Amino acid sequence: MSTEDALMALTEGYEPQDENMEEPEQEGYFSTSIVKSTFARTRWLVTLLMLQSVSSLILKAYEDTLSQHFVLALFLTMITGTAGNAGNQSTSVIIRGLATGEIGRKQILSVLWREFWAGLSMGCVLGLVAFGRVMACAGSTPLDALVVAGSLAMTVLAGVLMGSASPLILKRFGVDPANSASPILATFMDVSGVFVLCVAGKLFLSTA
Length: 208
Known about the structure:
The protein is an all-alpha fold. Helices cover 76% and strands 0% of the residues. It has nine helices and no strands. It is globular, with a radius of gyration of 20 Å. The N and C termini lie far apart (54 Å).
C-alpha cells in the first residue's frame, strides 16, 4: 500500500483500488435533465452565498482599521480577484488531469507539493507587482504597500493550494468538481482575502 493509499484509508469506507479500474460513468450534459442540473448547481450557490456573507462580518469588525487606512479598501478586490484567478488556473489544470487520467490517487501528494511551489513563486512575483501598484496610488505609504503585497502573496498561495485540493477532495466524495470547485474557490478566496488583509492591516498599521 502506498503512502497516499494509507492516508486515504484513514477516511472511513475507503479501500485501495487499482489505478486502472474504471471510474463510475458520469451523466452527460444533455442526458441530465435541466431541473436536476439547475437544482444541483443552485444548491451549491445558495450555500456559498451564505458562507460568503462572512466577509461582511469581517469588514464590520475591522471597520476602524479600514477607515483609517482607506488605501487597503481600494485594493481589497485586487487581492481577492488575483488570488481567485490563480486558484482557478490550478483548478482547471487539476480537473483536466483528472479527466485524462493523468492525475490519480497516487499523485495527490506530488500534485499538492508541485502546486505549493508554484503558488509560492507566483505569490512572490505578484506581491512585488502589487507593491509597485499600491505605491503608484496617491496617499499610500511604503507600509501600506507592504501590507497589501504581503496579503496578496499569502492569499495567492492559499488560492493555488485550495484550487488544487478542492477538485481532488470533491472527486474523492463523489461530487462533480466541474459544478462545485470554482464556486467554492471563489467564496474561499473572498473570505480569506478580506480576513488576511484586515488582520495584517490591524497588526502592522494600527501601531504605525
